[in-house]
Amino acid sequence: RVELMKGGSAKRIIGRAQRGLWHGKKILSGNHVSFSTLKTKRKWFPNVQNKTLRSKILGRSFTLNITTKALRCIDKSGGLDNYLLYSKPVHVDSQRGAKIRGDIIDKWERLNNKKFNRASEVLSQRLQRMASSSSLIRV
């Protein structure tokens, strides 16, 4: 699969990355340089793990090929649902991640009776965090 990036350059996403969450990571290639400066081609693979993650909104689990970078981002955002809803679509660049994200958005819209808008939801979350942290600072 080939996508166009900013600036018109093409970005190829490999098949394994399409079936999991890699958070924009990809296989890198380069040279292994020996002591005698002979160069041989080599590849650097991302640290991909098989993990089962639970979606609270959908009420089911998903087994995914997921990089450790994506796992850290999921922990930081507060779970799989928050990661898929509030992270930039560029980071959820796989077909499987996009499908799960679409299912979560559909269910979220049915639960809240309004259309999901990532920008306004992120802003409201930030305002809530600022309000709670300012109430802790008051003396």
What is this structure's SSE topology?
Blueprint: E1 2-4, E2 10-12, H1 15-18, E3 20-21, E4 28-33, E5 39-44, E6 48-55, E7 60-67, H2 68-77, H3 80-86, H4 95-112, H5 118-137
Parallel strand pairs: 3-7
Antiparallel strand pairs: 1-2, 4-5, 6-7
Helix pairs in contact: 2-3
Q: What is the first-to-last residue Cα distance?
A: 56 Å
Shape: elongated
* Overall SS class: alpha+beta
Mean pLDDT: 86
Q: Could you spell the SSE succession in H and E letters?
A: EEHEEEEEHHHH
Query: Beta-strand level of the residues, as a percent range?
Result: 25-35%
The largest pleated sheet is described as: 3 strands, mixed
Strands across the major sheet, in which order?
A: 3-7-6
Number of helical segments with 4 or more residues: 5
Rg for CA atoms: 19 Å
Query: Unreliable stretches, pLDDT < 50, 5 or more residues?
Result: none
- Strand runs, count: 7
Helix proportion: 40-55%
Question: Describe it for me?
Answer:
There is one protein chain. This protein has a three-stranded mixed β-sheet with strand order 3-7-6. It contains five helices and seven strands. Helix 2 packs across helix 3. 16% of the residues are buried. It is α+β, with helices and mostly antiparallel strands and 139 residues long. The mean pLDDT is 86.
